[in-house]
Amino acid sequence: MSRRFTAAAVASIAVIGVTGVATADSGHSAKTYKASLAAVNPAATTAGLANVTGKAQLVDGKNNKASLHMRNLAPGSVYLWHVHEGSCAATGAPVAGWTYRTQAGANGTLTSNASGNGNTKGTSPTFNADPTKSYSVNVHVSTATNGLAAGTIIACGDLTTTKASGKSKSKPAHPPQAKGPKS
Fold this sequence. Notes:
The protein is built from two helices and eleven strands. By secondary structure, the chain is mostly beta strands. It has one domain (31-162): Superoxide dismutase, copper/zinc binding domain (Immunoglobulin-like, Sandwich). Strands 1, 2, 3, 4, 5, 6, 7, 8, 9, 10 and 11 form an eleven-stranded antiparallel beta sheet that branches. Mean pLDDT is 81; it is low at 4-26 and 165-176.
């Protein structure tokens, strides 16, 4: 009887181990990118938005999604936003294939509330982050504002990867245990 129990236990452990490997190698694990958006000056100051800030998150996986949360915008105003290839310092073209919650052409729109805050999101069935490229999120004025042309970038943030737990710092290794006689 104990041999059958032992064999069943070993078989169960093997199945669990194989299932874990299959899940890890299935390619469906999501990679999360986060950005802190800051004012792009002198444009943000010219637009009267010197203190604009925000956060963005992009999840690259089976269900690609991006979210944007902004503060200190002009109350009740519409802005454009999208995911770009490149960094804030060297912005490339907007990434194709994104559908934003509200959209104007290929751009997502963000409407601020009476307090100057706004939240929105977008999805893409085709996005697949290229590890050799960098990505950023830009917010633009949607109309001519204080002499700035429509489409001028007022805030930007570089998307960087985070660990699955959401923490970006790793814990230091535990020091080795001392061996020897106990006193």
